[in-house]
Amino acid sequence: MKALIFDLDDTLYNQEEPFKxxxxxxxxxxxxxxxxxxxxxRLHADEVFEAATTGAMTLEASHIYRMKQALADFGYDLSDxxxxxxxxxxQENQGRLLLSPEFPTIFDYCHENGxxxxxxxxxxxxxxxRKLQSLEMANWxxxxxxxxxxQVGIAKPRKAIFDLMxxxxxxxxxxxxxxxxxxxxxxxxxxxxxxxxIWLNHRKRKTPNSPYRADAVVEKREDLLAAxxxxx
Length: 232
Prior knowledge:
Blueprint: E1 3-6, H1 16-24, H2 31-54, H3 59-72, H4 80-94, H5 103-112, E2 116-121, H6 125-134, E3 146-148, H7 149-152, H8 159-169, E4 176-180, H9 183-192, E5 196-200, E6 216-218, H10 224-231
Parallel strand pairs: 1-2, 1-4, 2-3, 4-5, 5-6
């Protein structure tokens, strides 16, 4: 392994926490419901991501849709106004993110072993950039090896965004490993580009029916370093 590339959202940090804070500031959703609600939110976000990216749907409309649909699944009927208010709080909470504590050790291991580090993330450029700044990712990963779909005009799982990273790294696809939490975007996208993949399945999702399989599956961030060392 010559390069290890990471997804951002819900991989390098726990995306459920800022979501939970935003929801519970406005609705009486219990803690035990929160993970299932968050998974529903992510699924509904995926439904409209392509439309929001291409301009077929406005970003605001996609935010309303994913919030209202997720909460409707749990019996909450929201107005567009409340959905946007919760979304605003969610985005503000994302400006105070904390890197999951396992990653500094992983990054140090990679630096000590000459493994390049990078990030590929889907989302609007400035929005994702603010998250990266909040996490202080520049301490470990250069801006040149950070690809944001909204900046480069290509989104996961399209092979082209993985190929762009491989071109920047100047290494062969089979020498790159990707770490991400989304099977559809991360496992399918990276394997389609000829990379190795570690699926961080910490939400314990069922493996979809797909011709692609991750090279390793871990359910806890604490187990990532061991999986990286095996693949490396």
